[in-house]
Amino acid sequence: MKSQSKFEILRMPPENTNSVLVSNGGDAAIFDPWGRCDDWARILEARNLTLREIYATHGHPDHISAAPDLSARYDVPWYMGAADRDLVGWGNELLDFFGLPHICAHCAPSSDLASGAAMVLGKIPMHIIASPGHTPGGMCFYFPDEKILLTGDTLFRDGFGRYDFPGGDQKTLFESISNIYNLNLPDDVYVVHGHGPDSTMESLRRENPYFRPAKA
């Protein structure tokens, strides 16, 4: 049976981060809601969608800037790795640069993510993959039915995320990248990165020199 889910990569203003809007019927979930709450509200209204859930690959402000306000406005859960809670409210200088409001330090996701199987919108199977290193609580999200992987800033098309921010760790990040490699996902899995162009598992294996198994 053909999936009824729809995935849209949205580069909300001010363009910086790859956010993903997932919908099924009239229900929606947002992954890495960058930008302003009001802009997201207009998108949801134009598509006749009801926001049900919010997910973040990690706690940096360029991946959660709209999450607190969206969660409050629509009274919906915001999910993120527990180890990134201390990052909420950190890095507001980046939001200053883009002219966005600060995230308050006491704002926090309503629910913590753990690796394993989950259902988005109660209908869409998703595997949550712990991927610390860029941040302590980083997560990747894999949708097996759609063959879509969201890597956040763990992995880019031709590189990887920074590890020199608070809680980052180079060794842990490379281990996370190797763990993704070792999942042996099909070549045609479509990969959405936190920033920059998208890729596939096949192109990552061929072109990204850091996407490889751990050294023996």
Name the CATH architecture: 4-Layer Sandwich
Taking all Cα atoms into account, the compactness measure Rg is 16 Å
Largest sheet: 6 strands, mixed
Strand order, largest beta sheet: 1-2-3-4-5-6
Mean pLDDT: 94
Cα distance, first to last residue? 42 Å
Residue windows where pLDDT falls under 50 for at least 5 positions: none
Strand share of the residues?
Answer: 25-35%
Order of helices and strands: EEEHEHHEHEEEEEHEEH
| The CATH class | Alpha Beta
Number of domains: 1
CATH H level, superfamily name: Ribonuclease Z/Hydroxyacylglutathione hydrolase-like
Number of strands: 12
Tally the helices. Answer: 6
Task: Write down the overall geometry.
Answer: globular
Instruction: Return the CATH topology.
Output: Metallo-beta-lactamase, Chain A
Structural class by secondary-structure content? alpha/beta
Instruction: Estimate the helix proportion, in percent.
Output: 10-25%
